[in-house]
Design a protein that fits this description.
With about 450 residues, this protein is α/β, with parallel strands linked by helices. The longest helix is centred in the first third of the chain and has 35 residues. The protein is rod-shaped, with a radius of gyration of 33 Å.
């Protein structure tokens, strides 16, 4: 009898525990359904863009950002950079699993888990501890522990500080998170691809690296895109991509529009026209240099805003926004003008731009007009322009003088590549009288020689 009573009580306890277990299972199932149901108000989505209290993020990535507008004379202090840092609340499981995982974070989280001293001292002295990371572009990376007294709503969440080599990579980091979380690469274009390529290598995301690499090789056939790759690769210090983009631009320099050329810094323009891969004639090259100078001259008077920040828009918007993005005026200094127009680079000047060069040089760099440094006798810019004018005097001088009789209201517009050509009358009128006389005398002598030969 006692045994049956005890058995009965055991069954009652078992039934009670079974019901509790069923209740917990039903609650867990409901919670799982709410996670998967986007219509549920209490749904928990693994999304780095959400507030961490909703997404239940279990890790924070901090990316310090320097000031993109700072110059070489002013470097941001560590405190200033920390003020401009960005925090991304992420989930370890998303960063370390699946085909889009980051091999870099796999190693980092293993470091967290295996470092016993870190686990024992997380809350030592009520201070926050985080792993500060300064990885290089190679597989070797150094990390040191650093105390950070950071006020955060999630004090138990560990932090990783990523110091990227440049701001372009820091700007593109959210795109990498989008790719890791949902495979989204809608913002992939010529502006973002170089930074994404560096990040894929930096964070060891092989699938992303393959995809970006394939996109760049395909998109490089677009000459306007090649110019952007040239600029962006220079910004992120990707030598391999920089070499490939420069070679493509140099081989197709005759196809580059003033808008394309206007995206280049003076130093990049100098590298382009000095490239051994350029196959165009010196006369064609002189026209491109004139296009570049004219673009900078005109854009410097344009009050419209410009930006050199990385463009985080979809690839479909690239063509419509390229004309505005990255087109900003650059100051041409005397030394750079010397390199852009040196006789070793432009031994011959096109008659179409000879008077423009004379006018531009007289107004901005008069000392460079007769400079023959490292060029030899007769290598000055003035001598080369005079030769171009006299060899084709009917086109460059006679038509210029005739054009003065016509009321021309055309003003070259640097924002319209189809209208970028040169009315020598405008440049001729601005020349000093003694230079005009020299041009006319040279034209007369050339005309006399032609008459004698005929």
């Amino acid at each position: 009898m006692t045994r049956s009573v005890n058995l009965s009580k055991i069954m009652e306890v078992f039934e009670e525990k079974l019901q509790c277990a069923k209740g917990r299972y039903a609650h867990a199932s409901s919670a799982c359904s709410s996670i998967l149901d986007p219509k549920c108000d209490t749904a928990i989505r693994l999304d780095w863009r959400l507030d961490p209290s909703r997404s239940l993020a279990d890790h924070a990535i901090i990316v310090p950002c320097s000031n993109g507008n700072e110059n070489q004379n002013h470097r941001s202090s560590r405190d200033e950079i920390q003020k401009r840092k960005k925090t991304y609340n992420v989930h370890r499981v998303m960063l370390t699993t699946g085909e889009r995982k980051s091999g870099y974070f796999v190693k980092i989280f293993a470091t967290y888990n295996n470092n016993k001293s870190f686990d024992k001292n997380v809350h030592k002295n009520n201070s926050r501890y985080s792993l500060r990371l300064s990885p290089s572009m190679s597989s070797n990376s150094s990390s040191v522990f650093e105390e950070n007294n950071l006020n955060n709503n999630f004090d138990d969440v560990e932090q990783t500080v990523l110091n990227f080599p440049n701001d372009s990579m820091a700007d593109a980091f959210p795109l990498v998170l989008d790719y890791i979380y949902d495979g989204n690469l809608n913002a992939l274009n010529a502006h973002t691809a170089p930074a994404l390529l560096q990040l894929s290598n930096f964070l060891d995301i092989r699938k992303l690296h393959e995809r970006i690499n394939s996109f760049i090789h395909s998109d490089m056939h677009n000459i306007s895109s090649a110019v952007i790759y040239f600029c962006q690769a220079d910004a992120v210090k990707d030598r391999e991509l920089l070499t490939m983009a420069l070679k493509t631009c140099a081989e197709n320099i005759s196809r580059l529009s003033p808008n394309d050329l206007g995206k280049l810094t003076p130093n990049q323009m100098n590298r382009l026209i000095s490239s051994p891969h350029s196959t165009c004639t010196s006369e064609t090259l002189s026209v491109k240099v004139a296009d570049y100078l004219k673009f900078q001259e005109t854009t410097n008077h344009d009050s419209s805003p410009f930006s050199n920040k990385i463009k985080l828009t979809s690839s479909s918007d690239t063509d419509t926004n390229d004309a505005h993005h990255l087109q900003r005026p650059f100051q041409i200094h005397a030394e750079m003008f010397y390199f852009l127009t040196h006789a070793q680079v432009l031994p011959r000047i096109s008659p179409d731009v000879a008077i423009y060069f004379l006018s531009y040089t007289v107004s901005k760099f008069p000392n460079a007009l007769q400079d023959e440094t490292l060029g030899g006798e007769g290598s000055s810019l003035m001598a080369r322009c005079l030769r171009a004018c006299t060899e084709n005097w009917q086109h460059s001088i006679l038509q210029t003088i005739e054009a003065r009789q016509v009321d021309s209201t055309f003003i070259p517009n640097a924002n319209n590549s189809q209208n970028m050509h040169y009315h020598n009358d405008q440049g001729y009128n601005s020349l000093p009288s003694d230079l005009k006389i020299t041009l006319l005398e040279s034209a007369l002598l050339a005309a006399k020689l032609e008459m004698q030969q005929s």
